[in-house]
Amino acid sequence: MLDLTADPVTLTRQLVDIESVSRGEQQIADEIEAALRALPHLEVTRRGHTVVARTHLGRAERVVIAGHIDTVPLNDNLPSRLEDGILHGLGSCDMKSGDAVLLHLAATLSEPNRDLTFVLYEAEEIEDEFNGLRKLSESDPHLMEADFAILMEPSGAIVEAGCQGTLRVDVRTTGERAHAARSWKGVNAIHGAHEVLARLNAYDARRPVIDGLEYHEGLNAVFISGGVAGNVLPDECIVSVNHRFAPDRSVEEAEAFVREFFGGFEVTVRDSAPAAMPGLGLPAAKEFLDAVGGEVRPKFGWTDVARFSGLGVPAVNFGPGDPMLAHKQEEHVPVEHIERCERQLRAWLGGA
Amino acid sequence: MLDLTADPVTLTRQLVDIESVSRGEQQIADEIEAALRALPHLEVTRRGHTVVARTHLGRAERVVIAGHIDTVPLNDNLPSRLEDGILHGLGSCDMKSGDAVLLHLAATLSEPNRDLTFVLYEAEEIEDEFNGLRKLSESDPHLMEADFAILMEPSGAIVEAGCQGTLRVDVRTTGERAHAARSWKGVNAIHGAHEVLARLNAYDARRPVIDGLEYHEGLNAVFISGGVAGNVLPDECIVSVNHRFAPDRSVEEAEAFVREFFGGFEVTVRDSAPAAMPGLGLPAAKEFLDAVGGEVRPKFGWTDVARFSGLGVPAVNFGPGDPMLAHKQEEHVPVEHIERCERQLRAWLGGA
After folding, report:
1. Are B222 and A234 a contacting pair at CB < 8 A?
2. How does strand B266-273 pair with strand B165-174?
3. Chain centroid to CA B2: how far?
4. Does A66 have pLDDT greater than 90?
5. Which residue from A205, A220, A231 is facing B180, i.e. has the nearest CB?
6. CB < 8 Å to A218, chain B
7. Pick from B258, B273, B288: which residue ends a domain?
8. Measuring CA to CA, which residue among A248, A255, A191 is closest to residue A216?
9. Beta-carbon count within 10 A of A346 CB
10. Which residues contact B260 (CB under 8 A, 6 or more apart)?
11. What is the CATH number of the domain that holds B309?
């Protein structure tokens, strides 16, 4: 049985040592659910392997604190190992240290100054269709309602606000096949892609400042393919382009930009995910920022904060661990990050 | 047993009905060898499944007449079928009708006005390493010595002179990987290929006139590839380029042109084959041209005539059948082409 009152470092070790690769979260979800159900001040709901626990204290504000409980596959990096103030092991950084902070606060703050909703969700590391937070936002959106949300993704224990959106499109050029020995009888689709690449090469990234944070967009070919045979003029070339867009644009606006950018070419949208506004101007966010020291960076990569943003809830990333270590064999987290995150959140929530 | 004295249309049917997909030429080579060995005016040599038969009449000139005996794979197009003056079936066009003309002349012209060397060779339709004419040019180049050579590749029963050379190179651009969410930290190798494609798009083909024939060069991307993952800036892009060059250039000159054309980029030669000069100014070629009606076109595609050219023997393509039908399921040859080729060659060689 998990002891949620244990210090968050010990609790992190306990969580790391319960293997929970995506689609294998049954055990860890069962243990988390049982531990939370033992706490009389929380109302617990389970959906699949996602567990939600809420206070109902009639506070003026509600805050969601969320973390995913799955990890990427094992890579000879279990069990956990604590050495010189660094905790090593699969999931230590991404993001069981964040989960431990969250669970410890859930157990020990029975009278917080804000109502709290704790969400521990499954399947963040795999295809979107399995994502527990996505499922929850569709099946029980009221469980995610709040004035503010904190996603405990590793962010170096400082606030990374909002996130950029992402859009992937295929830009296609066409031609007409011909034998390479009589090339004037055909039209080469790869040659026709020169203008697509020239425009990409000349792309000038927008860097809008939002809530005082400078975001940085991107437009990049991530794949290119074309060709039929070594002696044939190709009749098709496809450039796959990934657009990362700042939170002041919707997916629709980003798509309109990309379509105009590649005007004259066939553009097909392959997938997309919306950005999330940092929302730092809102009172709940301001107070949170002050409580954790005021340091804040824009989040360039996409994270689940966008799901809260989509529900109208401002959200930030704030968790222990260096995000560049996520998914690495040697992932680890400084004990100091875990302790600092716990201390700052506790203080903000009116704890001792 | 093949009857080489039968009319060439009947002989074509016999040859077509002996299946001889590349690497499966044993039976057809055995039958051809046996039939030629029965002719006292010919000296026969066999190398692998390549058969050479020569006259030794002390004539002032020697002419090689050559044809390959293999076909591309079966495609539900055997046995042969003769219908309304058209002979259908695998190899009917490429190039057993030419072989039949060749074999019929070998059997029935015992006193030609030029010494003749007949070459029936294996494995033209597959990788160059197996090509019977290439092997012969290395093991027994004296068997290919001549003043003039005729390759009976389908050419619409008119002369297609010389052939263009071919060179394939990879043009490579490099960059530096980075996460697509922080693209300014990397260098996109696909974007870097825009200049490669821009140069290809602006390419202005040389069209040199040689022996009165206008050749037409080409420079074409035949493949392009690049990409690591949907969220990663690619660090490599490769454009495979096929250059077809006119017979006034050597492989070395063609390579120098391509390297200069892509100056500033990494260029790696993948394979090459030399062009063949038409050689129409030479007396033997002139007389041949007059004998077959004077109509002549440049050959744009690469053929084995280049192997003769490499040995200093001027060579032309001249055979029944439309070259555009080669390798097609529905390949066929007009009886009229077979008869005309046989008649014209016979007249040129002093036959009745």
Report:
1. yes
2. antiparallel
3. 26
4. yes
5. A220
6. 180-184
7. B273
8. A248
9. 18
10. none
11. 3.40.630.10
